[in-house]
Amino acid sequence: MRNWRDWRNDLLASPRFQAFAARFPLTRGITSRRAQQVFDLVAGFVYSQILHACVELNLFEHLRAGPRKLADLQRLTGLPEEGALRLLRAASALGLLEKRDGDSYGLGPHGAALLGNAGALSMVRHHKLLYADLVDPVAMLKGEGGPTSLSRFWAYARNGAREGVSDSEVASYSELMTQSQTLVRRDVLDTISLAGVRRLVDIGGGEGAFAAEAAQRWPELGVVTFDLPPVAARAQARFEQLELSGRAKGIGGNFHSDPLPEGADVMSLVRVLHDHDDGAAQSLLNRIARFLPSGGRLIVAEPMAGIAGSEAMGEAYFGFYLMAMGSGRPRGADEIEAMLQKAGFRQVRRLRTPRPMLASVIEAIR
Prior knowledge:
- By secondary structure, the chain is α/β, with parallel strands linked by helices.
- The chain has 18 helices and 10 strands.
- Strands 6-5-4-7-8-10-9 form a 7-stranded mixed beta sheet, with helices on both faces. Strands 1-3-2 form a 3-stranded antiparallel beta sheet.
- The two termini are 46 Å apart.
């Protein structure tokens, strides 16, 4: 049976109606906005490549101190006048830069915001791999084409057993995780409380940035980062550098098969669960439930599907990023809650974060 959406779509697809709506005063504004939104979808890759060029050429950093003239920016970027002018005009149209007096350009609101977020700039550079993988999205959806650039970058994604991942392989992705998750760490730690907790074990915690920041916020808290041995070694080095080694430790192991560190009041999965397919994700939650004591807490923090206002980031961006990576998928809060209950957690609740598009938080009690 047809519903109102079918009638709506028939109407919107009609060239005759489109022509009428573009002229009629009451629908003209809506039609214009809708056309702009559709065009932005068509042109989105071009926009992203303009951003990528700005980042690769360090344009935002060059403009940190204030506007510069076209000739200065040519010299700093090594671009010919025509190329520099084309990029500056395009970036200004996107709000990354702003045209100032004469032939000068300064930071625009988006460029200034990016300049203050080193993690976002790191991800822009990293996206070169994703764009290469998405050259033929249909082939990827069909499972054709062999190993992707992202699966090679995220070494653990292509190595289900997580064995034999080298120091050099973990260095690049561990550094990116640390740089790109600064706001995530802050938002999660602003949302939860670890007051009175004796020991936090961060599962898949990379170089230990989340655990270290938690330890700095709560001076009585002991922390452990549990990750692959070469990654855990990097976490231990971080703890020693921050003079936290008296109550912070990096422990190496495979969280899918090795015993998890004992003695935790709280365990955390920060942007870990969505990296895994359903079976592996459920198995990990089952293992955590077995290792946590009664009354112990699990914190799950990651960008989730279905967040109001951020639907595109959840299902579109992370859906295709994780597909290119070769492991995992975005899940809604309802799905994660059901998985936690299946694992044996008796109390599950959602916590409101400052920026749910970056990370939503679910807390579960064993």
